[in-house]
Amino acid sequence: MMHLAINNAMIVTDKNIFKGSIGIQDGKVELISQSPIEADKVIQGDGKYLFPGIIDNHVHLNDPGFTWREDFAHGTKAAAIGGVTTIVDMPMQNEPAVSNAEIFEIKAKHVSSASYIDYSFWGALVDYNRSDIKGLRKAGAKAFKSFMCPVGKDYTSLFTGQIRDMLEITKSMDALAGFHCEDYNIIAYEEQKARREGRLSIKDYLKARPLSAEIIATQEILEIAREKGAQVHICHVSHRDVVDMIHEYRNKGVEVSLETCPHYLIFTEEDVIENGNVYKCSPPIREKNNLNLMWEAIENDRIDCIVSDHSPSQIDEKAESLGAFDAWGGISGLQTGLMTMYNEGVVKRGLEPTFIARTMAKRPAELFGLGAFKGQIQIGYDADLVLLDPKAHWEITDESLAYLNKFSAFTRLKGKGKPVMTILRGEIIVENGALSMVERKGQLIRC
Ligand SMILES: [Zn+2]
After folding, report:
1. What is the pLDDT of residues 10-63, one digit of tens each?
2. Residue 440 lies in a domain
3. How far is CA 181 from the centre of its chain?
4. Domain's final residue, options 314, 340, 367
5. Which residue spans within 81-151 are E strands per DSSP?
6. What's the distance, CA 220 to chain centroid?
7. Domains: count for the chain
8. Ligand 1 centroid, distance to 310 Cα (angstroms)
9. CB 250 within 8 A of CB 237
10. Structural domain containing residue 34
């Protein structure tokens, strides 16, 4: 007899939805059937959607390092409640940044018993770790993150000449190079000018990070990727024009993927101006017209991944008194991705829920080296699953967030379609919004 069965659910794949039952044994999906399955424990899935567990490939949990902003225990608990079963954690906002294999192992050991869900690590791609990249790849990093603008003391940015070199290295190791694309000449100049003139509001911040900066930087990466034949991933694309440019290059044969985030799909620059620094992120949230165009891109399968870019901070770091340029840039969204995307895409815009299975599970798994065992509801795959009740209403409040710092730009949103059960490798880890087991069984996946 099976260990666990979920019967009569609406099973969501990246292409279609069908009514069926899933049998789970030894942490894997063992059986998919039209009729109910007998098992030691049976979950009635009637009227609920069963999605593959969400894979969030862009998360900053800051552990070890800036753990007053977030840590693995709080971050992965929040993720599990929100239906996320695997994250790929970023190498910066770690102390030290994950720039070589030794640091990778220190981080692995440090968080080894802290995680409620499975996890994998990005490696750093900075100007001082050229000779360490191979070791990092061997340790299990599939993707390497790089910036074209400075981000921190030990997280140096690369100039275009260095990027040409680095892409040769990542190509030779079958690694994915991910880029934060904003042109530093433009944004640094605009910021200095604004500071000199004493213009420090969030409006001035938006003005200092124009769309042209994102387009120019993205195009540089795409041209270099084309020249070198390397695989690149464009992080947190904020605007439809950038999406379209990426597809022009894809049509020319460049191996490029892209991600966007819920905050670019829900909010507008008016929301940012109205609400201030809590909505500060980079690239910034764009104009209202962009929203429909971004959703059209999702509907037409032009966006690979929807990720949180969970970038938590303390509330003091978002204080209006700091001025917009000195306030923390980043939004906490790890817990609320599935519910907000279901509400925004399916409830409000009438999209098929398949876009969620595609952009928040299958495609991220494939791109980040997990595609052979995660990201889909398939026989032999890890039984990472999330059950969503399409009739359940929700409201995001600060208290509803399991983050270490309980605030977010998503607070106060209301909607329909709520994750009610999260299953990690065949074990129910969350039921009705609360952890159902105290043990933390999340495992590191070395890609
Ligand atoms: Zn990020």
Report:
1. 999 999 999 999 999 999 999 999 999 999 999 999 999 999 999 999 999 999
2. no
3. 16
4. 367
5. 84-89, 118-121, 123-124, 143-147
6. 23
7. 2
8. 7
9. no
10. 2-49+381-403+411-435
Find the DSSP H helices in 43-159.
Answer: 72-81, 101-110, 133-139
Is residue 431 helix, strand or coil? strand
Token pair for 264: 């670019």
Kindly give the distance from the C-alpha atom of residue 311 to the centroid of ligand 1, in angstroms, as a whole number: 6
445 lies in a domain?
Answer: no
| 384 Cβ neighbours under 8 A, 6+ residues apart | 52, 53, 85, 86, 118, 374, 423, 424, 425
Give the distance (Å) from ligand 1 centre to CA of residue 88: 11
Span 408-446, pLDDT tens digits: 999 999 999 999 999 999 999 999 999 998 899 999 999
**Cβ contact 143:122 at 8 Å:** yes
Cα 60 to ligand 1 centre (Å)? 7
Strand residue runs (E) in 262-357: 305-306
Task: Provide the token pair at 55.
Answer: 């894979």
Q: Transcribe 377-393 into DSSP letters.
A: --TTSB--EEEEEEEEE
Q: How far is the centre of ligand 1, averaged over its atoms, from the C-alpha of 29 (Å)?
A: 32
Query: What is the distance between the alpha carbons of residues 352 and 267, in angstroms, rounded to a whole number?
Result: 21
| CA distances, 287 to each of 4, 239, 269, 292 (Å) | 47, 9, 5, 10
C-alpha dihedral, 51 to 71 to 445 to 329, nearest 10°: 70
Place of tokens 């962009």: 290
